[in-house]
């Protein structure tokens, strides 16, 4: 029997980095978390303990902090591209660098319409994500959003589904629609305007969610993806994961009280989970 090493990667996870960009009139605060995931000629490290081709994960971590000073100045995508290229260009043993970045949301405080120069409030759990992969085939850039918690109080229904002996769900043409959206999309180039595109795509997703006459989560998922592909030629495909954060009408009739779609019980689990990728034909 012969045994050999299969696919393997190594790197540093959760390199948590904060940066103050000191503009003359105000401070910009950025907080990111970076994963470095490397592939390459590392077989002998596993099989005979030969570390001569290994760039220590500690050095990878230090490289992220050191390069952030000059090269994390705009988007996480641009910083990820710089890091991926740095690891590949400087280490012949590395054949693929995958850089995963997550940016937390901090918003400058605003009083009487004016931004405070250096005090912030969390923008909530929503995070901007990016994954850069560089290898001998080229570079791919995937951007996205996680924990985008959104809700609408009407223009959502769910009717005409299969009914069998176990069906108890009542049809409704007017329900709450809430989801904690996880979205990611790939760009057709690594040389696009990442900040402008991200902001535009996020707005398009939110506008479509808000204005869609939803017949199901599936129906709105597709509409959101379709709207982004129609508007942004730089996007190849988009994947949406949409858990259904149920708000179920509470039965007030048992107390002789009418419930005109006003009182609901929010349930965490179990939850519907709808996913889909929307692509160009
Ligand atoms: O939008 C929905 N899609 C479903 O597939 C589904 N199933 C369910 O019970 N409720 C819903 N809602």
UniProtKB/TrEMBL annotation:
Q: What is its EC number?
A: 1.7.3.3
Q: What class of enzyme is it?
A: oxidoreductase
> For this chain's UniProt record, which GO biological process terms are given?
purine nucleobase metabolic process; urate catabolic process
Domain of life (superkingdom): Bacteria
Secretion signal: which residues?
Answer: none
Q: Which reaction does it catalyse?
A: urate + O2 + H2O = 5-hydroxyisourate + H2O2
Enumerate the InterPro entries for this protein.
Uricase
Residues reported to bind 5-hydroxyisourate: 57, 158, 175, 217-218, 244
Signal recorded as keyword:
no
The positions annotated for binding O2 are: 57, 244
Q: Which residues bind urate?
A: 57-58, 158, 175, 217-218, 244
Q: In which pathway does it act?
A: Purine metabolism; urate degradation; (S)-allantoin from urate: step 1/3
Which GO-annotated molecular functions does the record name? urate oxidase activity
- What job does this protein perform? Catalyzes the oxidation of uric acid to 5-hydroxyisourate, which is further processed to form (S)-allantoin.
Tell me the protein family, please.
Belongs to the uricase family.
Recorded protein name is Uricase
Task: Please report the organism this UniProt entry assigns to the protein.
Answer: Niastella populi
